[in-house]
Structure formats: C-alpha cells, structure tokens
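Moderator note: this is an archived Q&A kept for reference. The question asked for a predicted structure of one protein chain; the sequence and the answer are reproduced below.
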Amino acid sequence: MKVCVPSAKNGGLEDNVGQHFGMVPTYTVLDTETNDVQIVENTSQHNGGVGLPPELLSEAGVHVMLCGGLGTKAVNMFSEFGIEVFVGAQGTVETAISDWKEGNLASPNSENVCQGHDHDHDHQH
C-alpha cells in the first residue's frame, strides 16, 4: 500500500508535513510493504503545472493521503480517484505515518474539513 504525505520542502521521512496539500513542493510516498520512499514533485496546476494533486498522486499509485486538513471538494476528488484521506497529520512525515498506523488520524467529516474560503488559518486557497 502506498501512503502519501504532503511535504513542506524536499520530501522524505524527516521533512515536515506541508499544511496545504495542493501548494507543497513535493509529496513523500511510502510503500508500506517494501518501505521504499518515493518523492513526487508537485507539478499540478497549483504550482504552475497541469492537472490536480489527486490526479498526480493517483498516477503515482497512492492509496492513502495523510494531511493536516483540506476542503470538502478536495476530499471528494481524492475519493473519485480511489484515494482514502486522513486529516490531522502534523510534525514530520514519519510521525504522520506512525500516527496513521496507530489510528490517531481521522477520516474527514463535516467537523474537521475546511467548509469555505472565509476561514482564518495559515494557508491560501
């Protein structure tokens, strides 16, 4: 199973979780069966490229996305690509994956996803 975490900088297990999944420079993908780590550059339209992050990560074979938070539209897009989302990830990528393995991250619901653009937190969308 491939688990993805948006990375704040160059990616890897020691990098910090990027708190805006669409705008991060890289995604770190861990294959939980082989422990292989893959760094996927964010070439989506959010960073001047083409396509959306769910498409990009689907092409990389991702099954699960762990992130700090995201909006309902993004949750639905990941679902369309068959990628399961968990929110509440923080700290390093490795910490986020450990938290997910221990069942400490939540599935998105009406109480923990961004509902619109009138919120006040430190990311842009």
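Archived answer notes: DSSP finds three helices and five strands in the chain.
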